[in-house]
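Reproducibility note. Readers wishing to regenerate the assembly model reported in the main text can use the exact inputs given here. Chain order matters: entities are listed in the order in which they were concatenated for prediction.
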Amino acid sequence: MSEKRPAYNYGTAILAAFEYLLGKYPEVFVIGQGLWSPWYVGNSMTDLDKKFGKQRVIDTPVAESACTGAAVGASLAGMKPIVVHPRLDFMLYAMDAVVNQAAKWSHMTGGQGHPGMTIRGIINRGGEQGAQHSQALHAWFAHVPGLRVVMPATVADARDLLIASVLCKDPVMYIDDRWLYDQEDDLPPVVECDLRLERPRCLRAGTDLTIVGSSYSTRLAMNAALELEKQGISAEVIDLRVLNPFYPEEVVKSVTRTGRLLVVDGGWGPCGMAAEVIASVMEQVPPCVLKKQPARVTLPFAPAPTARTLERAYYPTAELVVARAVGLVGS
Amino acid sequence: MKLKSDEFSLRRLADPAEFQADLDLAGTSAGSLRAYMSAMQRIRLAERQLATGRRDGLIGGPVHLGVGQEAVAVGVSAHLRASDRVFGAHRSHSHLLALGSSVEGLFAEVLGRDTGHSKGMGGSMHLWDQPKGFYGSVPIVAGTVSLAVGAGLAAKLQQTGDVAVAYLGDGAVEEGVVHESLNLARIQDIPVIFVVENNLFASHMHISTRQPNDSTARFAAANGVPYQVVDGNDVVAVAAVAEELIGAARSGKGPGFIEAVTFRWYGHVDWREDIDVGLHRSVEELNNWRQRDPIRRLKDALLKAGMWTEQDDKALEAKLQQEVEAAWAQAMRDPYPDAAALLDRVYYQGDQA
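Running the prediction on these inputs yields the following structure tokens for the assembly.
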């Protein structure tokens, strides 16, 4: 007897968010490369242009910088734009619009100008795509005051955090990962939430150690936790969800209970998100709480390789997370 | 094989010995002309005050002054309305004031006071007065050009008939994003007017040391954007091309491009004349350009046409000078932002709905 297939996967959950936003809010429009083509953005934007018109779902010239700046300018004029970058690597041309303009506008206009816009950047790696088709740069954006950064790990968050991002009056980097698109789940009807109130969330209770992840790293952490359970180790898993502003309270609370912290991150180690999580926790828990030094699983400090053999060595796996967790808990 | 197009040469427009005569006023009402005179004089006196304040150490940060360039913003603004969306750059006092924004708000902003247009958080280089149509200026060269395209795109989607304006300089066209913006504006038929104030210098570098042609309008042509190259020190001429291109944009014909040739009397930044920091900027050249003074040329034409008297002129200047001095005195007394402003404005604080 087979169970009924869940109604959504991560990709169609994103699509549902777009449909909800475009259907309900006339000031929402989408701009970016590949929006009229299924192979840029997977199943996450299928037929939006047909349903809502090419005026509001705009496939663009090859111009990341101008399109992102245009989204900033449109937001200042009362629209709620979503600019889509099918790979984060390509949006580095747009850094001025993101970091100098969108992120600083509220502050430098004395809280009067509000670029309420969403930048959807997709992490799309693996498959021997190499160094410039693979990057996860969320830590860069988490470093900048004035930006918000969200990374959904679950099907529900894929939909609901996108809606919350677009309704937020601040500039938001919404980063999704193509490796998550096959996750499936059922979803309740949409309830709009205020992004400013969203926090990291405990996805799995445990007592021996705390594993922190975000986006695909959360999935690694959850898979690792299942394996650890078989080995008699109880792992608590916290999904960061919102990386900027970063709220460490949930992690601090958890580590205070478990005494051990392992952070898994899809970016590089130095000055990365894992470093920030560990530093924030270390600042807030008394030394006697820790049973072991915190540890992190990150990418090796090198650009993404191309050869599949090197790719296998490059990207962290659930097995690696398990091994590091076992090392922390010890015997 | 053609290496250089003569079509995109400024020719006489770049020669300061030319275009010194008074203006052709035909077709412009006396009321409009007097309003141009008042607006240009107001901007000039305000910037003179800023030069003095900076020289005397009363202004802490850099000021990029546009004295000599007043006709551009005043001519363009003659055909703008408060619901239009204007963006500027580092030298944007005139762009702001030409929209009728308050001098006191500008002074307070430059002095970092809580009463400034940006509540003292922006200074001279981050100006904002959206209720007047001034969406913002930033010092990153070409930083707002794509934002203006977006504000124009918004106007197109909102079907308001409003236009966006991007003020930029001849240096900014060397930035890649300008070309992306021109192309995007054209392909999407976005109501945005690119106004290049070509003052021949980017900081200390003359345009001949930076670009193969001295007219930037070639980039408009390359992107299919209708353009006009105009004497930027002739407010009547600027207003005429602005009327044409803004009118076309309002009626759905898409973007326009104005190259207004002008010259700044001060150096790149602050009150000095910078006759010693770059190539091609000599005392003789500066003095020649002063003869192409947009205010003096309008005044002479008005006098000749019997629409203005020396007495009118003196009265206007006295009134504006008094306004400027009062605004400066008030701004100097105004408070700095509260300490809380440091953190309170990073993110939006109001209701989400």
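We highlight two features of this model. The first strand of chain A starts at residue 8 and ends at 9. Chain A touches chain B through 49 residues (CB under 8 Å).
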